Amino acid sequence: MSKVIISCAITGSVHTPTMSPHLPVTPDEIAAQAIEAAEAGASVLHLHARDPHNGKPTPDPEVFMRFLPRIKEATDAVVNITTGGGQGMSLEDRIAAAERASPELCSLNMGSMNFGMYPMLARYQEFKHDWERPYLEGSRDWIFRNTFGDIENIVERLGKGHGTRFEFECYDISHLYTLAHFLDRKLVTPPLFVQSIFGILGGQGADTENLLHAKRLADKLFGDDYRWSVMASGKYQMPFITMGAINGSNVRVGLEDSLYARRGKLATSNAEQVRLIRSILEPLSLEVATPDEARKILDLKGADNVTF
């Protein structure tokens, strides 16, 4: 087995500020937590931005540029910028920061889907900000759009236009077939970085059989042409990524995916989750990849070729 790449998704666009005082919101907080996560052993940092005044997800490249250069200056971690964005953002919104920053790596969701966040409403009686409740409720009727045309657009503009490679986010088995379609058309090139995602309402459930099936199917579709990673939401985060690692995957942690360190205990930082998964991997003789090793594994263009 090659070394395990730990990705860390720092803030995301799912959780809201009410849910945890440790969720990074401002550029200062995002930069500080990203740097700390890299120091703890994350070689890839997956980044969204938030309005520093109220914590609402924002696609504004100016906000991204308030933390991206600081992260690059302080770490050698691979920066992975979202193209998923958040609820209510257009495709142009979603890729604006990536086009500005020309990163080594971007996320790319491989299909349109329902993306239900509204069950979290039942856990909170009051919210800090007026936007939080309608944002979560709005996911009841939200379709996370990623059409074939959208995917082609992103691949053309960021892949061909900037030499950016992709973390292909696969929330369902059908997304693996969609990725195989783009590989057959030679619009994407190996090695493919395939992120299998479990436990999102609207996507594949966090079931062991689903994890093993995803691995078998990816092996069938991509052979040696892909690098696998596993991410799971909420309470499934650590058990599922541990199972993934045992079965040959890379792993993703971070407050985007789960706010907890263990049952009933909020994680105080992204770095705490990175340290926790390292404490699981290393006794299993699974060595953690450095950023430069991750670049080699994923065939990235290098940090000298970004524009931040």
From TrEMBL:
Pfam families: BKACE
GO molecular function: 3-keto-5-aminohexanoate cleavage activity; metal ion binding
Entry keywords, A to Z: Metal-binding, Transferase, Zinc
Domain of life: Bacteria
InterPro entries: Aldolase_TIM (IPR013785), BKACE (IPR008567)
Needed co-factor(s): Zn(2+)
Cross-referenced Gene3D superfamilies: Aldolase class I
Protein name: 3-keto-5-aminohexanoate cleavage protein
Organism, as annotated: Paraburkholderia pallida
Lineage summary: Bacteria, Pseudomonadati, Pseudomonadota, Betaproteobacteria, Burkholderiales
